[in-house]
Design goal:
This protein has 178 residues and is mostly beta strands. The protein contains 3 helices and 11 strands, in the order αββββαββββββαβ. The strands form 3 sheets. Strands 8-7-10-5-4-3-11 form a 7-stranded mixed sheet.
Length: 178
């Protein structure tokens, strides 16, 4: 199984892309093969506002594994705030909203400054829907479409860049997989 942070087949292509965007890279241990460090202004900031309660999450997309450090919003109070009022989100970070029991949910972007990709995760851990490039501050409801156990919010554009799609598997200690 090939493990890459950004899902490219060629690591050298990744390094070229990162250097164009103003990033340096360093190898890190097995849990996260690539750590990005911001060295200049860039659309993929990775050193701003570190999330609390971080837990590793993996999205298995074909033969590629994508690693994220996520903050878990597991209760109603945490889910009601989510990523509101935050100005930055690193490319390798996100927020996971958990629902027990699984249910249909609606998300929105009220008081959210960051454009997001919202990933709806079914009870089996499979992605059932992806809402791309959501509009900051919008009050428009973004429905799950089916019952979900979790919703993952990541920086806008990453689902396209990493080729994350419906049917991909999300692996996290709090998501039950069949």
């Amino acid at each position: 199984m090939k493990k890459t942070f950004l899902g490219f087949g060629s690591v050298s292509l990744l390094f070229v892309l990162l250097s164009v965007l103003g990033f340096q890279y360093t190898k890190t241990p097995e849990a996260q093969p690539l750590q990005l460090l911001q060295v200049s202004g860039s659309p993929l900031e990775t050193t701003q506002e570190t999330l609390t309660h971080q837990n590793p999450l993996i999205i298995q997309s074909g033969i590629n594994s994508h690693y994220f450090q996520i903050e878990v919003a597991g209760n109603e109070a945490e889910r009601s705030v989510g990523l509101m009022h935050r100005k930055n989100l690193a490319a390798d970070q996100g927020m996971l909203f958990l629902y027990q029991p699984p249910r249909n949910v609606n998300m929105w972007m009220k008081n959210t400054y960051i454009a997001l990709d919202i990933i709806f995760i079914g009870p089996d851990g499979n992605i059932i829907r992806v809402a791309k490039n959501t509009q900051p501050h919008s009050l428009e409801l973004i429905p799950s479409g089916n019952e979900v156990q979790a919703v993952l919010e990541i920086k806008s554009g990453l689902t396209d860049l990493l080729k994350i799609k419906t049917g991909d598997q999300v692996q996290h200690q709090l998501i039950h997989q069949s």
